[in-house]
Design a protein that fits this description.
Length: 257
C-alpha cells in the first residue's frame, strides 16, 4: 500500500513538472515585445506621455507579429490601451495634430505581411480623457473604362473630374491578349482601381497636417500599371475634406519605378 502511494505521489510530481514546463513555454512564446516607444504630449496638458506599440512575435515567421496593440501611459499613471491588428508586420507611428484641435494625434501604418504588400492605417486621439479612433478617409471612388483606339478614361466621383490616358505604347500587348482587335475594343472592360497603396501624414493646407493617399490603377493585370492617383485630405469639423487630387500616368517604360 505504501509503495502504491509512493508511485502515485511520484507520478503526480512529474506530471506537475511537465505542466509547469508547458506553461513556461507558452509564456515564453507569448512574450510581449515593445516595437515602438515614443514620448509626446497627446493629452494637451503640456506633459509628455509615453507611447508604445506592443505585440507578440509569431513562432512561424519572425517578421510576423500577433496581438498588436497601442499602449499609452500618462505621467499620473493613467493608461490607455487599444488593440490594433491580430497579426501584421512592424508598424510605424507618427505624432501630429491631424484633426486640428490643438492636441497631437497618433497615426499608425502597419504592413499586413504577405506578397500583396498591403497596409492597414489607424488614427487615434485622446478626447475627454478617452482614447478614440478617428476613421481615416475612404479611398477615392473612381469609375473607369477602356476606350477604343488604345485609350482609357477615369472619373473621380469625389470631385467629378475626368481624365483620359493614351495607351498606344501597349497596343501590341493588348491586341495579343484579345482586349482590342485593330484598335477596337472586343467588349466593354474596366480598369483595376485599388485602395490606398500608401497613406501618409503631410501638410495639406498651409501649416495644417492631413493625410495624403496614393491609389494605383492597372489595366489587364497588376504589372500593367496605368496611373497613380494622389489625394490630399484635411480633417475639418469632424469630417475629411478632399483638398486636391493629382493624376500621373505611368508610361510603359516607367513601370516598376
Amino acid at each position: 500500500m505504501k509503495k502504491e502511494m509512493l508511485f502515485a505521489f511520484a507520478a503526480f510530481f512529474f506530471m506537475s513538472l511537465s505542466a509547469l514546463s508547458v506553461v513556461n513555454a507558452v509564456e515564453e512564446t507569448n512574450e510581449i515585445k515593445i516595437l515602438s516607444e515614443e514620448s509626446a504630449d497627446v493629452t494637451g496638458d503640456g506633459i509628455e506621455d509615453s507611447i508604445y506599440i506592443k505585440a507578440e512575435q509569431s513562432d512561424i515567421d519572425k517578421k510576423l507579429l500577433r496581438n498588436i496593440f497601442l499602449h499609452i501611459e500618462e505621467k499620473d499613471g493613467k493608461v490607455h490601451k487599444t488593440p490594433l491588428d491580430e497579426s501584421g508586420e512592424k508598424p510605424s507611428i507618427d505624432i501630429k495634430d491631424v484633426n486640428n484641435d490643438g492636441v497631437n494625434d497618433l497615426f499608425i501604418s502597419m504592413p499586413t505581411g504577405g506578397s500583396e504588400q498591403l497596409s492597414n492605417f489607424y488614427l487615434y486621439t485622446i478626447e475627454d480623457e478617452k482614447l478614440t479612433e478617428i476613421s481615416v478617409p475612404e479611398p477615392l471612388v473612381i469609375q473607369s473604362e477602356f476606350l477604343n483606339h488604345y485609350k482609357a478614361k477615369i472619373n473621380i466621383e469625389n470631385n467629378n473630374k475626368s481624365y483620359k490616358f493614351n495607351m498606344k505604347d501597349r497596343a501590341k500587348e493588348y491586341e495579343s491578349l484579345g482586349v482590342y482587335y485593330d484598335g477596337m475594343l472586343n467588349e466593354p472592360m474596366e480598369l483595376m482601381v485599388l485602395a490606398y497603396d500608401t497613406l501618409e501624414l503631410a501638410k495639406v493646407k498651409g501649416n495644417k497636417w492631413g493625410l495624403v493617399g496614393i491609389q494605383n490603377i492597372y489595366g489587364t493585370h497588376e504589372e500593367d500599371h496605368i496611373a497613380k492617383i494622389e489625394s490630399s485630405w484635411l480633417h475639418h469639423k469632424g469630417e475629411w475634406k478632399l483638398i486636391k487630387t493629382k493624376v500621373k500616368q505611368v508610361k510603359k517604360e516607367d513601370e516598376g519605378k
